[in-house]
What we know:
Elements: E1 2-6, E2 14-18, H1 40-48, H2 57-71, H3 77-86, H4 118-130, H5 134-142
Antiparallel strand pairs: 1-2
Helix pairs in contact: 2-3, 4-5
Amino acid sequence: MEMEMDNGDGDGEESRARAKPVAKNATRGSPPLPSLALNQDFLSELQKKPPYQAIDVRHVCAKMKAWCETSGKQPSRERLINWLNREEPPKARSILPARIPKDPGRSVPQPSTKPIPVDEIIRLADELEALGLKDQARAVRQGVKPQ
């Protein structure tokens, strides 16, 4: 895009000059935000707010500034808030030990210490015999102590 401009020597001659391209940030008509927009007071105030207390606000701000430099963007308060809202707070770590089983070496259930009634043992032995397991039924009956 070329523009005719007066060269300013007063003779009325015009020279051809190239118009400078418009910067990305100038499209909105506002100058870039000063670096003081993300000052320590602002960061401290953010850190005190409940949604951001579990997040290291200064660390996120440093990451955002580094991204802005490499991406050709301007750091701003609004951009920092967006970064903070996307940030996941660190997982809480329990100081309590993990639940420990009573006997970690055993995978078999503990045997009952309560004695089985004799009539229950005889009924189980009869069921084993009905299933054709005569040797097992005889072994169960032999384990029964007379009362």
